[in-house]
Design brief:
- The protein is an alpha+beta fold.
- It folds into two domains: 3-74, 3-Layer(aba) Sandwich (Glutaredoxin), CATH 3.40.30.10; 86-214, Glutathione S-transferase Yfyf (Class Pi), Chain A, domain 2, CATH 1.20.1050.10.
- Helices cover 58% and strands 8% of the residues.
- It has a four-stranded mixed sheet with strand order 2-1-3-4, with helices on both faces.
- Helix 1 (12-24) packs antiparallel against helix 8.
- The radius of gyration is 17 Å and the shape is globular.
- The termini are far apart.
- Bound molecules: glutathione.
- Glutathione binds next to helix 3.
Length: 216
């Protein structure tokens, strides 16, 4: 079987899949899906959603980061990232779902408002409030230890690490003093999670990509 990932270093959804690939130790070719008009056209042909990540498995395209991660897990190759216990596996899926629905949704809208010029402050205030709700819910289901579920790296951490990296950027971008003030469990979780070598690798890739686009 051959697998190729259409990726973007800055995409939190792609970073989630890369983290799963690194932690599992899988042999997947990784290409930047938007790095040339040819690759972009190739991606668009395979996946009309025109989004990364898209995994190509023996010529068949599979989009959506959560679905890709579950698929990689179901292959049964490499280090498992989903607990066997049904309650723990459900907890992993819950945390990923909270991230996708209640954190990435408002955060994506906020990232459209980074430039203070022409910023829609009403929209920013509304989405910051939505984001704070989602973050609070996540904090409720996290106990503050370095891994979200079961004391070791899981697909929940693959989802949350890139999201929380971007969540930290919200502070300086929108003049929020301390984004973790009301969620101490999330603060200590993320601080501990960053010590995982696979997480550290992915976050340094995302950081480098962010610095590049911000011209830092
Ligand atoms: N729900 C999707 C979101 C993927 C997504 O939004 N990818 C963005 C990059 S972060 C993208 O490829 N955007 C390009 C486009 O929509 O044309 C997932 O989980 O994979």
């Amino acid at each position: 079987m051959s697998m190729k990932l259409y990726n973007a270093q800055l995409s939190p959804f792609s970073a989630r899949v890369r983290l799963a690939i690194y932690a599992k130790g899988l042999d997947v070719e990784i290409v930047d899906g938007f790095s040339s008009p040819e690759l972009e056209a190739e991606l668009e042909k395979l996946n009309p959603m025109h989004k990364v990540p898209t995994l190509l498995i023996d010529g068949k395209a599979l989009p959506e980061s959560e679905v890709i991660c579950e698929y990689l897990e179901d292959l049964g190759l490499g280090t498992p990232l989903r607990p066997k216990d049904p309650a723990e596996a459900a907890r992993v899926r819950l945390l990923s779902r909270i991230g996708d629905l209640y954190i990435m949704e408002p955060m994506t809208k906020l990232f459209g408002q980074i430039n203070p010029k022409g910023r829609d402050q009403a929209l920013v205030d509304r989405e910051l409030a939505e984001l704070a709700k989602g973050i609070g819910w996540l904090g409720h289901y996290i106990d503050g230890s370095p891994y979200a579920v079961g004391g070791k790296l899981s697909l929940a951490d693959c989802t949350l690490a890139p999201m929380l990296f971007f969540y930290e950027q919200i502070g300086p971008m929108f003049a929020v003093a301390d984004v973790f003030t009301n969620v101490p469990t999330l603060k200590s979780y993320f601080a501990g999670l960053k010590n995982d070598p696979h997480v550290a690798r992915v976050l340094s890739e995302v950081d480098a990509a962010l610095r590049k686009v911000m011209g830092r």
